[in-house]
Amino acid sequence: MCSITGFFNNENAMEHTLHALEITKNRGLDGIGICTAGELYIAQDVNSLGIDPDISQRNVLGHRLHSMVNFVLQPIAHKGKIVANCEIYNWKELDEKYGVEAQNDADLLIKLIEKHIEKQIFGTGNKTTSQTEIMQVIDEILHETIGVYAFAYWLDDTVYIARDIVGLKPLWYSLSDGFAFASEKKALARNGYAEIKELNPREILVYNIKTGSLEKYNREFFSITPLHEGSITEIEEHMKILLENAVSIRMPDEKFGILFSGGLDSTIIACMCKMMGKKPGIDFTCYTAGLCEVQLPPDIEYSRMMADELGLDLVVKSIGLDEVETYLKDVVPLVEDTNVPKVGVALTMYAACVAAREEDGIRVMFSGSGADEIFAGYDRHKRSTDISRDCYADVLKIYEKNTYRDDVVSMNNNIELRVPYLDKRFVDYSLKIPPQYKINDEQNKLILRLLADELGIPAQVSQRKKQAAQYGSRFDKAIGKLAKKAGCKTKTEYLKQFYGKPNLKLGVLFSSGKDSNYAMHIMQEQNYAIECLITIKSQNPDSYMFHTPNIDLARLQAEAMELPLIEELTIGEKEKELDDMKNAIIRAKNEFGIEGVVTGALYSNYQRERIEKVCDELGLKVFSPLWHIDQEKEMHQLLDIGFEFIFSSVAAYGLNKSWVGRIIGEKDIEKLVKLNEKIGLNVAGEGGEFESFVTDGPMYRKKIEIREMEVIERDEYTAKVVITDAVLVDKE
Question: What is the DSSP string of 667-685?
Answer without folding.
Answer: HHHHHHHHHHHHH---TT-
